[in-house]
Specification:
two-stranded antiparallel ribbon, alpha+beta
């Protein structure tokens, strides 16, 4: 159990939009400020009451002073004298923002926290190779026309073929395996067939479509902006996730080519979608609730992180849940709802088999295969989804978990308030 009670007052997120679609040109900090303003409006909490701002972000843009949480806080109405920090634990960065606040509260360093995660995967940078960078540097330092021409002529066609940073980030430097290859490994070791993966993927889409009204309760409409200094509204409003497909079937998914291994089973259809978006929560201690009069929707009972074999990073939830069980009163069998982030169908199915999670408890409104996985935002989204679903169904406990590239897992125990 956490040494100090901490509650989720409420939480909202942006619509999750597929790579290079509705949110592709929006500054990532808006994925935090937009739902944060909605959150303050819905709860009636004055932003000046916030003690600290904590956000996760994996692909942090260079133009955010190296601390996107600071931009989100100030531009959400939080006073300038309130500190802000950006945290990073890969796919669990949204979790890390939540648990960082829990630890700060336990240490007596605040009672009210604005936390969450944001990610613009559409804006992940392209990287030039070292030789090209040297040539660009030499060209920028040229003073005479002669030296400029000389340096310009030194370029070769290969210098204009940058590497995609997003693709590089999905290769684990510890085991030299892509995330998709780790899913292929689990599929082989746990005898998970292509059909099982496709059935799970179709099931995720079906649940997301059927649970659309439930998911709408956690979405704050996003006011798209113009590319000007004011980021003024351009007249378009994005209301919904654009990942869930009404026509997703096992038959259609079965026609897709494998992506990572020619003879494998993992496809784009049974993997999480590359997505843009953000999610925000307002956390308070018991004292924070007393000071503001706020009514929480859930309580964070405990959490755990655990490391695992990087080649089998998809089993991270199993390891984290085992640690949570050993270190607290948590019992997975007592959970009414279980959320396991759907990085890959194979990965979730492997975890489900190890943990013996009943289907009726698992990802009841679909998951990242249908909704998308905007890296740092996913942990925060899972916590919001579980909290609101507990309240909606009048259930007591939920376990929220995810795997982490590099070989880790995270798990939160959330209880209806």
């Amino acid at each position: 159990m956490l040494p100090k009670e901490i509650y989720i007052v409420d939480g909202y997120r942006t619509p999750f939009s597929k790579f290079n679609t509705d949110l592709q040109d929006e500054p990532p900090y808006l994925f935090g400020t937009s739902p944060a303003k909605h959150l303050f409006l819905q709860t009636g909490i004055d932003p000046s009451r916030v003690d600290e701002v904590v956000f996760g972000c994996c692909n942090q843009p260079a133009n955010t002073i190296g601390n996107i949480a600071r931009l989100i806080g100030v531009r959400s109405g939080v006073p300038e004298d309130v500190p802000a920090v950006t945290v990073h634990r890969n796919c669990a960065s949204g979790f890390e923002a939540i648990t960082y606040a829990c630890d700060k509260a336990a240490a007596g360093k605040g009672n009210i926290f604005l936390v969450g995660g944001v990610e613009s995967m559409s804006q992940a940078p392209f990287l030039f190779n070292k030789d090209a960078v040297k040539k660009f540097t030499n060209l920028s330092r040229s003073r005479s026309v002669t030296s400029k021409v000389k340096n310009a002529l030194s370029f070769r066609a290969s210098d204009f073929s940058p590497e995609v940073s997003l693709k590089l980030a999905l290769v684990d430097g510890l085991c030299d395996m892509g995330m998709g290859h780790t899913a292929e490994l689990l599929a082989r070791e746990y005898n998970i067939s292509r059909k099982q993966q496709d059935e799970f993927a179709a099931w995720s889409h079906k649940k997301a479509i059927e649970g659309k009204s439930n998911l709408e309760d956690e979405i704050a409409p996003f006011y798209n902006t113009r590319d000007n200094c004011l980021r003024s509204h351009n007249g378009k409003i994005t209301y919904d996730d654009n990942g869930p497909r009404t026509d997703s079937t096992v038959e259609k998914l079965g026609k897709l080519r494998t992506v990572f291994d020619r003879n494998g089973t993992v496809t784009a259809g049974n993997s999480s979608q590359v997505t843009d978006g953000g999610a925000v929560l307002l956390l308070m201690t018991k004292q924070g609730l007393l000071d503001t009069g706020a009514t929480p929707i859930a309580r964070i009972m405990d959490y755990a992180y655990a490391g695992c074999d990087p080649r089998r990073m998809g089993l991270g939830p199993v390891k984290a849940i085992e640690r949570l069980t050993n270190e607290s009163d948590f019992k997975l069998d007592n959970m009414n709802l279980v959320e396991i982030n759907e990085a890959f169908a194979a990965q979730v199915l492997a975890c489900q088999s190890q943990l013996n999670v009943p289907e009726h408890k698992l990802n009841v409104n679909g998951g990242a295969i249908a909704l998308g996985h905007p890296l740092a935002a996913s942990g925060a989204r899972l916590a919001i989804t579980a909290s609101k679903e507990l309240k909606r169904r009048n259930l007591r406990d939920a376990c929220v978990s995810l795997c982490v590239g590099g070989g880790q897992g995270g798990a939160l125990w959330i209880q209806n308030a």
